[in-house]
Amino acid sequence: MAFITANWNPLGEAFYRKIELYEMGWSLRDGLKECLVAAAPYGGPIALLRQPQRPSSSARPQLEIYSSSGANMASFPWKSGPVRQLGWTVCDDLLCIQEDGTVLIYDLFGAFKRHFSMGNEVVQNQVLEAKVFHSPYGTGVAIVTGASRFTLATNIDDLKLRRLPEVPGLQGAPSCWAVLTQDRQTKVLLANRADLYILDNTSCTPVTPPGLSLQSCSIVNMAVSFSYKYLALFTDSGHLWMGSANLKDKLSEVDTKVRTPPKQMVWCRRPKSQQPSVVIMWDRLLLVAGECTDTIQYTLDEESVCVAELDGVRIVGGSRHELLQEVPSACQDIFKIASMAPGALLLEAHKEYEKSSQKADEYLREIKEQSVLGEAVRQCVEAAGYEHEPETQKTLLRAASFGKCFLSNYPPEPFVSMCRDLKVLNSVREYTVGIPLTHTQYKQMTVQVLIDRLVYRKLYPLAIEICRYLKTPEYQGVSRVLKHWACCKVQQKEEPDESIAHAVSVKLGEAAGISYSEIAARAYECGRTELAIKLLEFEPRSGEQVPLLLKMKRSQLALSKAIESGDTDLVYTVVTYLKNEMNRGDFFMTLRNQPVALSLYRQFCKHQEQDTLKDLFNQDDDHQELGNFYVKASYKEKKLEARLSLLQSAVDEYNKAKNEFAAKATEEEMKLLRFQRRLDEEMGEALLGLSLQETLHALLTSNFHKQAEQLYRDFRVPDKRYWWLKLTALAEKDDWEEMEKFAKSKKSPIGYLPFVEVCVKQHNKYEAKKYVSKVTPEQKVKAHLAIGDLEGAAEAAIERRSEGEISTVLSRCSPTTDRALLERLNRARSTAAKK
Amino acid sequence: MSAHLSYGRVNLNILREAARKELREFLDKCAGSKAIVWDEYLTGPFGLIAQYSLLKEHEVEKMFTLKGGRLPAADVKNIIFFVRPRLELMDIIAENVISEDKMHSPRDFHILFVPRRSMLCEQRLKEQGVLGSFINIDEYILDLIPYDGDLLSMESEGAFRECYLESDQTSLYHTAKGLMTLQALYGTIPQIFGKGECARHVANMMLRMKREFAGSQTQILPVFDSLLLLDRNIDLLTPLATQLTYEGLIDEVYGITNGYAKLPPEKFAAQKKQGEVGKDLPTEPKKMQLNSAEELYAEIRDKNFNAIGAALSKKAKIISAAFEERHNAKTVGEIKQFVSQLPHMQAARSSLANHTSIAELIKDITSEKNSLYSFSFHVQLTTLHSSFIYLFYLYLTRQVTSEAFFDNLTVEQEFMTGVDTDKVNTYIEDCIAQKDPLIKILRLVCMQSVCNNGLKQKILDYYKREILQTYGYEHMLTLNNLEKTGLLKPQTSTRNNYPTIRKTLKLWMEDANEQNPNDISYVYSGYAPLSIRLTQVLARPGWRSIEEVLKMLPGPHFEERQQLPAGLHKKRQQGENRTTLVFFLGGVTYAEVAALRFLSQMEDGGTEYIIATTKLINGTSWIKSLMDRPEAP
Fold first, then answer.
1. I want to staple B131 with a disulfide (CB 3.0 to 4.6 A). Which of A174, A193, B126, B392 is the partner?
2. Where in or outside the cell (chain B) (predicted)?
3. A698 in contact with B at a CB cutoff of 8 Å?
4. B403 touches chain A (CB under 8 A)
5. A785 vs A509, A771, A809, CA distance in Å?
6. Distance between CA A522 and CA B322 in Å, rounded?
């Protein structure tokens, strides 16, 4: 414990410390000499391209991928062209940028994924230098060609190449350059000896850093901070200029007194840095230069590479992997020698308490007197997060927990979540996993991404354990990991379909929200169609199964799945697909076996393809529907002959369907149409298309009684209806004489009340009266009332001794009605009621 | 304006709010000023979710109706099409977009599919070469729309026709989806009952979707205890009968669409301000929104029409008395209190005036003195402006119609009680002879067929022939449709099982009490709707008691249970009612809704009902949806 500050070095007001993360597990004979190295930030993997031991034409370089602790993940001889630069994407894919501008993408395990080119122009001019950079848009690649032109791709997953404008006076590669992301734009900052330029999409602007004292010196190296906010420039006079990346402010300038151009230069900052610095590396020297112009010097005993992180710099060497960072203020407060900060006192108090010494109380009282116990606990919790050694973490957390006991209402969340975070962090920092994340990086990166990284490394059990431990909702946690596991599982070529399908279903059975179709899609991509189909069986969402089944040309299966889902749009989609894929006969046969699809397709045809509809009915021998089809079609025809011939087809179909009624009715319609045409031609009427009833009515009102009679007989119109018809027609044209004749022609099948009512309706009470006497006794009252004859109605009602009818008459009486009549009615009603 | 949705047993405003939220989110996705191009069919249903003001708040400046050709000019940044996923509409949209491109000012296009996006439609847009012109293609899931405090409707007119005539089960898929949305908001419904093929299909889809969504389960205490799915085709009789509740009659006579009724304007003229008297009578129909937000309407809507007069008269007295209070107000405080109540009283008074007018209108058509249907209609409306002499005049002139209404009702009741259903009915014959409206004839013939479990071939053919000869051969297709759906059918077995069903389920009650009902049969003055009887029996004593009858009705009956997450099992308080959601697949009538409300209010009922349906229907709108008219060239 006492040695915690042993590796601290002061820099201005702050301290810097260098801690060892791992002793590297790899065994590299020459260390990192003659290697092209790329190490991903956030404790990511390391890629090495090692030049062959003995240069000869047949020897090939070796590409190796290691975890941060030096555990080998992949290793294979490089068979493609010469590589200029290696780099990692945000999703842990390796980019190998070749001299000819081709960029090859490999996964963590060295499996080739895809490639793309940085443009045709590059092929001739070659890539001189290249850089991989990260921005909110993803991972990008920038190159400078032999023709001194820059080309940028901001996001390799959505490749858009941008060739930047020419830089005046630039020959070959610039002295140094960097990629900047500013104002949502990606730019290149480059130095050509003493001149500095900013290159954006449209222009090349010369710039001068404010306050650079020796203007004439060449700029030989530059570094942009992790956040793209700060810039450092190194001149051949050994001066280091630090300022903001927009070149508006200068922070400081330091004379390093080393004139050799550095091998590497990176910013070393942390959020809320007190003393940001730039780390400069030469062959044997590592120099940390702060804003305050102080420096720290470390000797390097082996070839190393610096990796900039959000909160420090990692130094990867042949045998060691170290982290250099500014000591966070919480740690400083607690561990600085003779510190009286609340956290330091609390730690001390707890130490005494463990020793069962009463001094514990003294310390505690001191803290409490200043009422900073809360602050003390907070400091201890925070500092625990910054410590790498589990023992130190534990000591700090125990102290915090101890302090918490003396506080009421202290919120438990920060303490609990810190304990959880550290547990997760310690497990991924584990040598075998090799992800040396700091707490700050972890918070920035989020659990989701960490889980993804573990999944990429195929560390499924650990990922699941972490999800369960953090109680991540299944959907985003365990299920997601299992899905990845399954996607990986289906690629194991040696295992048979059956056993993979079984293994997958057993393991995924309980997990919620698994998308089996995604797994199946992966299996299909690997050429395992049978396995894909087996896996799709587990998919509960039919909607998800269908597109893949179609892709695999299992259209029949797709159709039944679509039907199962009940989603008619999905069924339509498959049907449309089938229609285009199959010949018509097969298509119809397929539909025939799937009634749901068939009726939906019929609906579609009804609106879109009338002819197909007919074919469908034909195939099914659905004569009834065919008949209906012809009937419908007949109404679309203007010419009578065409109409009749369609109706004849309908008759034939109805006959085949054994629908006698429809056949007969259609024949009658044809007969009627012919009759109407004849009359139209002969008499100049416009009867065509009218119903039989309307035709008769028209004939009767136009005095074609003979023709009407003929129709009435030919079409066997029921007497009742014909009487009604004729009666109304006659009344409408006030042909009272004819009506009277009609009434007397024979006994009316509808009685005579209609005669009365029809006359009244035509406001002819006089004529109406003629028929009142003929009305049956039951309807007498109604008839009398209809013509407004109250007395007659009264007589009739009284005679019939019907209480209801008497009441009806009474209700029609008005104050002007004869009193005697009223009395008679009332009397009759009471007698009727008595009965 | 949506408060009435939250007063019921289940707060349906949650559903409405969820729908509004989604709409706002979509509108905000299209930044800048916008114009909406409406599939006209959707405007009605949307009106139940959001008024123009909401759209305006989100920069909707213009609204157009979708039609072919070029879009009207509008100085907006975005054009949004609100459409149903129909191919024919896609063609129109394509036409709009193509003719737009020729003009200079570019506008952003978006499509909002209601209720669901469709690959088929997108494919069509692609074929037309315009798919790429759309910046956003989204769906607005609007399945179940809150219609009233206890009523949800999908407002899907064609649902019955599609399901039972065309075997297109799209609307059932939407139903299942809608029920899933409902469960996401109100918790998993533990029990599902159902009767009928479509009900079975919907239940299957729901159970399937539940499996699909496994893992994203909602931790909501279930609001509904059970769901009852009913196929319309197990009870074809009820919608054919003339509804006799107040609301039902308004629907029968004037039609209620999307919660609005269009009424003849004459009656409402009197309510205009005094100064305007003497001007011409308004010719535009009066559009009135009818829902429980109006206190008086909520009170009387479900009463039998014969009880309306008394109810209105009572209300009138109360209002008059309230206005009289002003004479008693002596102190400043009392006057102040009186004045503060004035707006409410005035609203009540105008509401009363409106409903008196409507009731008069309907009475003109329905009532006949000296018959069973004698109305005691003496509203003392001294405080109202209605002109009674005018009303009385109208009443006399409508004598003929009302007689017809009464005769029609008599025949309906004869059929429902099983009188002479196996013979040609003379009333129907007479109506055909006089060429009464075809739909009226079809309603009666279908009713006779349903009540007789099919008609003898000879009788059926006779009716059909009469209809074709009178109304025209083109109705052949309609008749064919009616036969396909089972509304009309030839008798196949000699046994007519309708009487058994009627007796077992007590579908006819001789002594229906219209004024103070004690049974659901009051809604049809004697006939108790079969669908509601099934619901009633399910609650108590259970369907096991009527197995025989259930077997006579088409389709399977079933019961399913849905597992609830642990801890969400409801602990029922002593005397707490169960809540059942009854879903009518293929439509429900206002009278049936009234009957269910009656059951909810019964003191010893034990169950409260929330009603959901594909569409609110009546016999006329229903038959109309099944008609096919061949298009003339």
1. B126
2. Cytoplasmic vesicle, Autophagosome; Cytoplasmic vesicle, Clathrin-coated vesicle; Early endosome; Late endosome membrane
3. no
4. no
5. 83, 13, 8
6. 77
- Gap between the Cα atoms of A808 and A104, Å rounded: 102
Q: Would the CB atoms of B167 and A595 count as touching at under 8 Å? A: yes
Asked if the C-beta of B176 comes within 8 angstroms of chain A's C-beta atoms, the answer is yes
b/e burial code for range B133-165 (CB count within 10 A of at least 16 → b): bbeebbbbbbbbbbbbbbbbbbbbbbbbbbbbb
Interface contact A513-B204, CB threshold 8 A: no
* Cα–Cα dist A365/B214, whole Å: 56
What crossing angle do the helices spanning B332-366 and B388-397 adopt, rounded to 10°?
10
Amino acid present at B390: Y
Which residues from chain B sit within 8 angstroms of residue A566, using beta carbons? 169, 172-173, 176, 201, 204-205, 208
pLDDT means over runs of 10, chain A (835 residues) = 78 91 87 88 92 71 92 91 91 92 92 90 88 90 92 89 89 90 87 89 88 78 91 91 90 89 92 90 92 89 91 92 93 89 92 91 90 91 93 94 90 93 94 93 91 91 91 80 86 82 80 78 85 83 82 86 88 89 88 88 86 87 92 90 94 94 94 91 84 91 88 90 89 86 86 86 84 83 80 81 76 74 81 72
Flag if B215 and A474 touch (Cβ within 8 Å). Answer: yes
Q: Check: pTM over 0.95? Answer yes or no.
A: no
Residue showing tokens 């399937």: B208
- Do residue A666 and residue B476 have CB atoms under 8 angstroms apart? yes
> Which chain A residues are Cβ-neighbours of B212 within 8 angstroms?
540-541
Instruction: Residue A542: list chain B partners with CB under 8 A.
Output: 208
Q: How many helices (H) and strands (E) does chain B have?
A: 24, 15
Chain B CB contacts of A603 under 8 Å are 166, 168
Interface confidence, given as ipTM, is 0.85
Burial of A321-342, coded b for 16+ CB within 10 Å and e otherwise, reads bbbbbbbbbbbbbbbbeeeebb
Q: How many CA atoms lie within 13 A of B434 on its CB side?
A: 13
* Chain A residues within an 8 Å CB radius of B399: none
Question: Whose CA is closest to A228, among A212, A213, A247, A210?
Answer: A247
The residues that bridge with A788 in the sheet, in sequence order, are none
| Cβ within 8 Å of residue B283, ≥6 positions away | B265
Q: HSE, CB side, 13 Å, CA atoms: give it for residue A700.
A: 28
Any CB–CB contact under 8 A between B218 and chain A? no
Query: Contact, B614 vs B157, CB < 8 A?
Result: no
Nearest to B469 among A636, A691, A811 (CB): A691
- The reply to whether residue A570 touches residue B119, judged by beta carbons under 8 angstroms, is yes
